[in-house]
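Study both lines:
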Amino acid sequence: METSSSTFNQRVWSEVARIPHGRLATYGQIADLIGAYGCARQVGWALRRLKLPSTVPWHRVVNAQGRIAMSLSREGSDWMQRDLLMAEGIPVDVEGRLPLRQFLWHPETHAGA
């Protein structure tokens, strides 16, 4: 039997899986797309529950300020995220800032991607 938490996680992971290579989404954007308005933080927790490495492109989700959360609590996944984004052609500085506007995913214009 699935709990509501695992159902939420699955919805987040399914939506994040739709983000195309070289594009970014925000935690709040993913929350809105799955109908969980105002649940950006919960989206972040759902992504933290993924076992790494993962086929879900979790690294393409960043905060609304266009930053990777650089923190010791992330146990190195912040640097992994930075490296994965740079490998996709998205520039990220050492403080985790990136050009969100330029690379933001717009699902309505990337249908099928």
Remarks:
- Strands lie at 25-26, 61-62.
- The radius of gyration is 13 Å.
- The mean pLDDT is 89.
